[in-house]
Design goal:
By secondary structure, the protein is mostly helical. The protein is elongated. It is built from four helices and no strands.
Amino acid sequence: SSATLVGRQIGDLQCNINRFQIVTALAEMGGTLAALKGQSASDPATSAVVATAQSGLNTANAGVATIAKAIITGQAAPAAARTQVENGLNTVAGAIQKVNSYVHAQYYRC
């Protein structure tokens, strides 16, 4: 039981590499969104979409932090935290799709 759960949560080397890559990618995304926020300051529509993406990223990061804390303390990671990460990333993806649609409509008109 508990030992099996803890062992599974700690993961093998590849699992931990994947976790590190996810956390790194989320941090890089935060930097990209911060840069976009600055670049889009004069465009309220784009600024709003970037703010939505940042909110989603914050939600995902909070879920990741909850999962990490559970792993570190030997507790079961709450399913709600995984859902929180998923919801946050879905919010980010939706916002990015809006940015892509906006850019396409503005710059690639026929």
